[in-house]
Design a protein that fits this description.
By secondary structure, the chain is α+β, with helices and mostly antiparallel strands. Helix content is 28%, strand content 25%. The protein is built from 17 helices and 23 strands. The strands form 6 sheets. It has a 7-stranded antiparallel β-sheet. Strands 5-6-7-8-12-13 form a 6-stranded antiparallel β-sheet. α5 crosses α6. It is globular, with a radius of gyration of 22 Å.
Length: 472
C-alpha cells in the first residue's frame, strides 16, 4: 500500500509550458490582436502575461502577474500603439513567480532594444549564465538569452539571433522583436510548437493554431526546427541557424498541453484524442454503465472510448472554468476538499453507476485519488480509470514542470499499486504505441522521453533546479 507522502503533497495536474504570440501588421491594432491571441493560449500559462509593442522607433513593454484578462484592459491596450507586437503567457519552469520574471524580457544596448518571449526550457543554463558574466543577476534562462542577444545588438537582432541560437541547448520556441521586425525561432528538434499565420494586412506567429482563428489569421505553416523567421516590411524571410537531427515535437502536446481545436503536423488535436480513446477502449475494455471525462482534456478521448465500447457517454463532473490560478490561498478546510474547488460531481448522473473515467495522465496521483473519492461520495458503484497516455516514468527537462522522478508515482510503483493508491476498481493506460499511432505523426518525429527515458537533447547527469539561478 502506498502512503500519500510517497508521492508528494502537490496536485496531480501537469503544469503547461508558455504561450507565445507575435504580430506584424502596420495600420492594425496589433495590441488588441495580440490580446485575443494570448487569450486563446491562456491554458499554456496562467502566472503572468505581457506584451511588447513598437511604433518603429521605440519598444514599450507591459507585463504583470495574473491572467490575460486581469493584466490587460481597454485603458492598457489603448496605450500600446504600434505596428508590431509580441505577447507571452507564462508558467514558470525556471525561476520564481514574480514580476521580474514575467515576459517578454526587454534588453537594450543603449541605442537599440529587443524583447523576447520563450516557451521551453534550456538544459545548458549554468554554462550560458557564466558566459553572460553577471552571476546572480538573471533568474531565468529566458533573461540570459535576451542578455546574450543584447551583447550582439549592434549587428542587428537578426544577426544576433543567428550568432546566439546555435549556442543554446534544450527546448525553445522564441518570439522576438526589435523596433521594426518580428522574429520566430524553434530549437533544432522543434520540441515546442510554433506556427506562422497570414493576416489580411500582415503576419502573425503563435504557439498553437487555435490562436490564429480568433485573430483572423490563416495558418500558413509551422516554423521548422532549427529555423529563424524574420517578418518585416520586406516580407517573411527564413534562415537556417542549425541543422535538425530529427523533429521531436513533445508528444504531450497531443495528449494534454494543446487545446483540442489546435493542429500539429496537420493533425487535429481533437481527432487525435478521439482516436486515443478508441484505441484505449480496444486495449482496455471495461464492463460499465457510463463513460465520463475529466474536464477538459478528457472530453475528446472519452467520446472515442464510448464510441468503440458502445457505452453511453455523459458528463459526471462539472468544472469551474473561472478559477484559474488563484493567488488567494484557500482555508485549511477548503484545502482538505481539494479537487472540489475545480470539479463538482453530478450525483443524479452517476448514482449507482459503474463508471469508466477517462483522463489524460496521472502524474503524482494525489488529485486522481481525490477525484475517485468525490465520485464514490456521489454514489458511483464502481470507478474504472482509463488513462490516454502511458505511465509517466521519467521527468521532463524541456518545459513541463516535472523535473524529478520522485514526483512521478509511476516511476517507482506498479500499475496495481497505483490503482490501490487512487482507490479505483481498475486502472489501465494506453500503450505508447497506441498514443503515437493516434497522432498520425511521421515515424520518429515525437519526443517521448517522459514515457521511455530517451531524451533527444542530452541533459547530463543532473539538471539544475528550477530556482538554481536565484541561489547563485
Amino acid at each position: 500500500m502506498l502512503a500519500s507522502a510517497a508521492v508528494g503533497a502537490g496536485g496531480d495536474e501537469l503544469k503547461e509550458a508558455c504561450g507565445l504570440f507575435g504580430v506584424w501588421a502596420p495600420g492594425e491594432d496589433v495590441a488588441r490582436i495580440t490580446f485575443f491571441g494570448l487569450f486563446s493560449l491562456q491554458h499554456r500559462g496562467q502566472e503572468s502575461a505581457g506584451m511588447a509593442v513598437s511604433d518603429g522607433q521605440h519598444i514599450l513593454v507591459y507585463r504583470e502577474l495574473g491572467l490575460v484578462s486581469q493584466v490587460f484592459d481597454e485603458r492598457t491596450l489603448a496605450t500600446l500603439q504600434g505596428d508590431l507586437c509580441i505577447g507571452h503567457t507564462r508558467y514558470s519552469t525556471t525561476g520564481s513567480t514574480n514580476w521580474e520574471n514575467a515576459q517578454p524580457s526587454f534588453k537594450t544596448n543603449g541605442t537599440r532594444g529587443l524583447a523576447l518571449g520563450h516557451n521551453g526550457n534550456l538544459v545548458n543554463t549554468p554554462e550560458l549564465d557564466r558566459r553572460v558574466g553577471r552571476r546572480g543577476a538573471a533568474t531565468t534562462d529566458s533573461d540570459i538569452v535576451a542578455t546574450l542577444l543584447a551583447q550582439h545588438l549592434d549587428e542587428g537582432l537578426e544577426r544576433a539571433a543567428l550568432a546566439v541560437l546555435p549556442e543554446l541547448r534544450g527546448a525553445y520556441s522564441f518570439v522576438m522583436m526589435d523596433e521594426r521586425s518580428v522574429f520566430a525561432a524553434r530549437d533544432p528538434f522543434g520540441i515546442r510548437p510554433l506556427s506562422i499565420g497570414r493576416l489580411p494586412s500582415g503576419w502573425c506567429v503563435a504557439s498553437e493554431t487555435c490562436a490564429f482563428d480568433v485573430a483572423g489569421a490563416q495558418f500558413v505553416r509551422e516554423v521548422e526546427p532549427g529555423e529563424l523567421v524574420t517578418i518585416d516590411d520586406r516580407g517573411v524571410r527564413s534562415h537556417r541557424f542549425a541543422e535538425s537531427p530529427r523533429p521531436a515535437l513533445c508528444l504531450f502536446e497531443f495528449a494534454y498541453l494543446s487545446r483540442a481545436d489546435s493542429r500539429h503536423y496537420g493533425r487535429s488535436v481533437h481527432e487525435a484524442r478521439r482516436e486515443m480513446g478508441r484505441l484505449l477502449a480496444r486495449e482496455a475494455p471495461a464492463d460499465a454503465d457510463l463513460v465520463i471525462p475529466i474536464p477538459d482534456t478528457g472530453h475528446s478521448a472519452a467520446e472515442g472510448y464510448a464510441e468503440v465500447a458502445r457505452i453511453p457517454f455523459g458528463e459526471g463532473l462539472m468544472k469551474n472554468r473561472y478559477i484559474g490560478r488563484t493567488f488567494i490561498e484557500p482555508t485549511p478546510a477548503l484545502r482538505a476538499r481539494g479537487v472540489r474547488l475545480k470539479l463538482n460531481p453530478l450525483p443524479e448522473t452517476i448514482q449507482g453507476k459503474r463508471l469508466v473515467v477517462v483522463d489524460d495522465s496521472i502524474v503524482r496521483g494525489t488529485t486522481t485519488r481525490q477525484i475517485v473519492q468525490v465520485l464514490r461520495d456521489a454514489g458511483a458503484a464502481e470507478v474504472h480509470l482509463r488513462i490516454v497516455s502511458p505511465p509517466i516514468r521519467w521527468p521532463c527537462f524541456y518545459g513541463i514542470d516535472m523535473s524529478t522522478r520522485d514526483e512521478l508515482i509511476a516511476a517507482n510503483h506498479r500499475v496495481e499499486e497505483i490503482r490501490d493508491f487512487v482507490g479505483a476498481n481498475s486502472l489501465a493506460y494506453l500503450s505508447l504505441a497506441g498514443l503515437v499511432e493516434a497522432t498520425r505523426a511521421p515515424a520518429g518525429t515525437l519526443c517521448r522521453a517522459c514515457f521511455d527515458g530517451e531524451y533527444p537533447v542530452p541533459v547530463g547527469d543532473q539538471m539544475p533546479s528550477k530556482f538554481a539561478l536565484e541561489t547563485l
